[in-house]
Amino acid sequence: MKRAALVLVGAYLCAIAAIVHRHSSTIAGAKIPWGLILALVATAAVVLAASELMRVGGAWLGLGWAAMLTALQLSPGGSYLVATDWIGLTFAAGSLALIVWGALRTPRVER
What we know:
It contains 4 helices and 2 strands, in the order αββααα. The protein has helices spanning 2-20, 34-53, 57-74, 86-104, and strands spanning 25-27, 30-32. Strands 1-2 form a two-stranded antiparallel ribbon. A hairpin with a 2-residue loop joins strand 1 and strand 2. It starts with a helix and ends in a 7-residue tail after the last helix. The chain crosses the membrane at residues 32-50, 57-74, 86-104. It comes from Aeromicrobium panaciterrae. This is FtsH-binding integral membrane protein.
């Protein structure tokens, strides 16, 4: 049951982050991609929580995340959420790297 829940949470996280990662603001002439930063921070936090929940929780979360990203790209008409510019590629590669890091990090052993 936990595995299925983590897959669903991963898919939901990907869908919400894909919508949010394009948001930005201009402050003092500099464009700040706050949506991208928020998406990456949220992904890191959720994958760490999933890894604490179960031993391979980050991997199950990553499975749902990757399935949703694939579904977005293979949808009829293509996806307009994750573009192939630097923001979209940073979102996809950065989130994937954070998920792999969270899934492979050394588990804490309590004595």
